[in-house]
Amino acid sequence: MSKLSGKVCFITGGANGIGKATVELFAKEGGIVYFADADFSAGERLVSELKKQNLRVTFLPCDVSIHLQCNEAVVTTIQAEGRIDVLFNHAGVIVAKAFLDYTLEEWEWLFDNNAKSVFMITRAVLPHMLEHGKGVIINTSSSSVKAVTSFESVYGASKGAMHQLCRAIAVEFRDAGIRCNLIVPSFVRTKHAYEELEQLRSHGVFASENDITLMQGRICEPEEVATVALFLATDDSSFINGAEIMVDNTFTAI
Fold this sequence. Notes:
By secondary structure, the chain is of the alpha/beta class. The protein has helices spanning 17-28, 40-51, 67-81, 104-132, 153-173, 191-202, 209-216, 222-233; strands at 8-12, 32-37, 57-61, 86-89, 135-140, 178-185, 244-247. The chain has a single domain, classed as 3-Layer(aba) Sandwich (Rossmann fold). Helix 1 crosses helix 8 (222-233) and helix 4 packs parallel to helix 5 (153-173).
């Protein structure tokens, strides 16, 4: 039997990279997948590909930094399916620059997308999970909350805020049947990671894929993170709650 058979899954940032790999995996494992993303063309391509395989996938154009769009995406899913069993807060953005060069607008943009978005989406989904007496929330954090990288102070702060929020949700709602866990990846072969490397190099940080290989053995593939999300989404991880699952091949252990 498929591991997510009949489960309604809501994924943010699902059009590319880790999010895309998770949408594909959850759908192939029998999930009824709704994914939100601001990248309309990529979202449309993905949903078209997966529907050709007779998988149950719906794309919801959504800017997760905008409250109204977050609520509309959740309401659309609830109205169609009656519930959301698994929420994967994956959407996120990055700006890397010297601390004194960050602007207030960039601070707000990073926090809106990386922290406030998780608050807004989770706040919209959680009441429905509580009505059903159970639910799984998964969140993509970053190794930046464990190992500080130069020129990523505000990015790390935004991820750190989200990270602690999700641990607190796990504690507060544990006895209501809610599990909330964090996936903490380092460098993954995604557009997001290559943008990060390019920005770091522009500030004089010697950062290449060879450097990543030295730090974590090799670059991680999006599918390897998706399998962790699948594990956390299922009852195989029934006693894992409030956890920070490092997906970094010793990057933060060295």
